Fold this protein.
Amino acid sequence: MFVDTSRLILAAFLFLIEAAIAYAGRPLTIDDVAPVAPGQLEIELGFYHGLPNGGARDQKWPIVTTTYGVLDRLEFGLAIQRINQDVPRAAPSRGFEDLHINAKYKFFDETAGFPALAAATDVKLPTANRSKGLSTGKADETFLLIATKSLAPLALHANLGYTIVGNVTGAQLRNRLRGGSAMEWALDSQWSMVGEVTGASRADIGGKNEADFQLGFRYALQPTLVLDFAAGRSLRCSGTSVQGTFGLTWTINIKSIFKR
């Protein structure tokens, strides 16, 4: 009886670890170190609605991200979103923004006293319509350091990044320092609670630094299909008075499809 009970406890412990780290991604904007498994395609689809403190609206739909696991520690992805913005003292913007190409590589495994580490990069390509305010017409590059520590059923993540902004004539854009931290708490085999605090330096000479938080949940309909929703707001008076997002993450085993 003692042996059986011990095995059950061990199995439950291992399951909680897996549940705590398996669904990193939406609705969090903070990344985790784990790349998509080799041969798997992860598709994220989301909707965002924000109410700036100055009024008007800020909508993003659809928010689409596709990521493919190339190797055991390496993933590549594409991301794009369509915006519908009516912001005070600015012309309305509607349409798809620039395409993003990204990659992530996990270079250090977690130890008892040290978190797992990964490096990521994101390149924004000037594919959108500049005359409609959807693009600066220049490429931007972001470099990101990611750390993850598992304390089952809790997982903690931290990001620190820097964006090099393309030089635009007549615009006083600035390179940006960005980062934040996030947590994931596995409540059971299907539900998990997530939260994050993020920040970024000002985007231009006349802008202001940004700071936001959000709290939300994920629900796994099945291991390969996860629903999510979250709400939050800016921690500064110049940001959003309220913001919300919901979406889904669908994982497809590409290797198994081609083996049939």
